[in-house]
């Protein structure tokens, strides 16, 4: 009878080892599948932001932009079109970018070639929040 008890314990032990190997293989498979389902890194993007006095919304906009670019594996620079009446919005953007360890650059006005081409022009991505301000005022 002692032999049977030892054999049962040995089979239980081997079954547990097989279960651990199976779970480890499944974990590796899931990690690989998650890694391959991510979008490819697209490199570098330059963003031109026109904040248009969006004090209440700018923090959420910047956070979602950073998360989107992080998910896509992109690094970026942010250039803000700074006007005097938007000082509070600019201060919020500066603080957020400093927390990210990034520098901010400024332009006094939107370059004419970007104003007429729409959202994307070569390497620049234009985010114009003036339009969302106008649309909110019309409703």
What does it look like?
The protein has 139 residues and is an alpha/beta fold. Helices cover 56% and strands 18% of the residues. A five-stranded mixed sheet has the order 3-2-1-5-4. Helix 2 runs parallel beside helix 3. The longest helix is centred in the N-terminal third of the chain and has 36 residues, at 2-37. It is rod-shaped and about 90 Å long.
Number of helices: 5
Helix content: 55-70%
Bulk shape: rod-shaped
The computed structural class is alpha/beta
Order of helices and strands: HEHEHEHEEH
The major pleated sheet works out as: 5 strands, mixed
Q: Quick summary of this structure?
A:
The protein is of the alpha/beta class and 139 residues long. It has helices at 2-37, 58-71, 87-99, 112-117, 130-138, and strands spanning 44-50, 75-81, 104-107, 120-121, 124-128.
Task: List the keywords.
139 residues, alpha/beta, 18% strand, disordered C terminus
Summarize the SSE layout with pairings.
Layout: H1 2-37, E1 44-50, H2 58-71, E2 75-81, H3 87-99, E3 104-107, H4 112-117, E4 120-121, E5 124-128, H5 130-138
Parallel strand pairs: 1-2, 1-5, 2-3
Antiparallel strand pairs: 4-5
Helix pairs in contact: 2-3
């Amino acid at each position: 009878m002692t032999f049977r008890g030892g054999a049962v314990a040995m089979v239980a032990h081997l079954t547990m080892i097989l279960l651990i190997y199976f779970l480890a293989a499944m974990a590796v498979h899931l990690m690989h599948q998650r890694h391959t389902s991510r979008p490819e890194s697209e490199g570098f993007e330059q963003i031109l932001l026109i904040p248009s006095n969006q004090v209440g919304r700018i923090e959420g906009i910047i956070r979602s932009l950073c998360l989107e670019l992080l998910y896509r594996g992109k690094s970026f620079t942010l250039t803000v079109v700074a006007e005097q009446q938007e000082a509070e919005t600019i201060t919020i953007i500066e603080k957020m970018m400093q927390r990210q360890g990034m520098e901010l650059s400024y332009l006094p006005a939107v370059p004419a070639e970007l104003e007429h081409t729409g959202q994307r022009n070569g390497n620049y991505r234009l985010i114009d929040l003036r339009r969302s301000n106008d649309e909110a005022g019309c409703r």
